[in-house]
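Run: sequence + protoporphyrin IX containing FE -> complex structure.
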Amino acid sequence: MIKSKHLALAAAIMWIPGISVCQAQTPSVEQQIIDAMTKAFGVHPGFRANHAKGIVVEGHFKATPEAAKLSKAAIFNGSTIPVTVRFSDATGVPNIPDGSSHASPHGIAIKYHLPDGGETDMVLNSLKFFPVSTGEEFRDLLLATVASPPNAPKPTKLETFIKAHPTVPMALATLATPDSFADENYFGVDAFIFVNTAGKKQAVRYIIEPQKLVHLSEDAADKEPPNFLMDELPKRLAKGPVVFHLKAQLAAPDDQTKDPAQPWPVDRPVVDLGVLTIDKAVPDSMDAQKKLLFLPGQLIDGIQKSDDPLIDVRDGAYAISFSRRSQ
Ligand code: HEM
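>> structure
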C-alpha cells in the first residue's frame, strides 16, 4: 500500500515536470504571434511588439442617454469619465514614418478611469474589419509575410496565403493615412455584448467617429515629415480640444459575432454612445506609454466578451508584449 502510494507520488512528480517541459517546448499561439512580430519588425527593447510608435493624451467621456438604455456599464451612466488615450502607428518599428502605408492601421486605445478606482479599456484601429478570423491565421499571415522578401520565388508564401484568405486584401483596402489622428475613424472590429439593467443583451461593434474625416493620397502621405501625426496632435490640442463620437453598430439577432473578418451589413443601426473629448497632451508621452497596458478584454459589468476568439488571443499577446517590453 505504502509502496504503491510512493510509486504514485513518484509517477506524479515525474509526470508533472514532463508536462511542463512539454509545454515549454510548445509555445502558445500568443507567444508564437509575438515571436513572429519580432521576426517581422525586429527587436526594439522597451517598445510594444505592435503599434510601437504612439502618443499619449488625456480627456474625458460623457455618454448619451441611449448608451445607458443599452448597457448598465458605469462608463455609460452619463457622468464625466476621465480617460487616458494612446494613438499609434502599426508595426513594432518605433521610428516608422507616420505616412508610410505600413503605419496603417492607425490605432486608438482608451482607458476609462472609473470613480471606484476601476478601469476598462477599448482598443480600436482604422481597419473596418480584420484581415483574418483567428489568432492562428494571424500568426500564419505574419509568418508568410516574413517568408516573402522581395526576392522570394513566386508564388510567394504571402501570395499563396492571400489567395486562400481573400479577406486580407479586402480589409487592407479599407485603410488610408489621415492628415491627423483627430481626423480618422476607428473600428473595434471584435464584437462585444452589452447587458442593460433589465438583463437584455445586445451584440455591438464600436466605431469612433471624428468631427471630420480627412484622408491623404498615398503620394501626399509619402511626402509628409516622418513624425507628422505625432507632432501635429499636441499642436492641435494647444489650440483646443479634439472631439470624437463613440458609436456602436448593433447586430441583428442572427448576425454572427465570432468572425472579426466579416463585417455586419451596413444597414445595421448605429447608435451614438457619447462624446470623447481629448484636451491635453501628456508632457512625457514616451515614459507614460511604457507604463500603460490597454487590454481589449478588460471589461466591466454591463459589457461582456462575445464568442469572437480574437479577444482572448489579443489579451494574451498584449500581456506577453507588455511583460517583454517592461523587462
Ligand atoms: C490576433 C489579433 C491581434 C494581435 C495578436 C494583436 C497584437 C498586438 C500587440 C502584441 C500589441 C502590443 C501590446 C502592448 O505591448 O501593449 C498590440 C497593440 C495594439 N493593437 Fe493589436 N493585435 C490584434 C488585433 C488587433 C485588432 C483587431 C485591433 C483593433 C481593432 C488592434 C489594435 C491595436 C492597437 C490600437 C494597439 C496599440 C495599443 C496601445 O496603444 O497600447 N489589434 N496588438
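>> summary
Confidence is low (pLDDT under 50) at residues 1-23. The beta strands are 54-63, 80-88, 107-113, 119-125, 186-187, 192-195, 201-210, 242-250, 270-281, 303-305.
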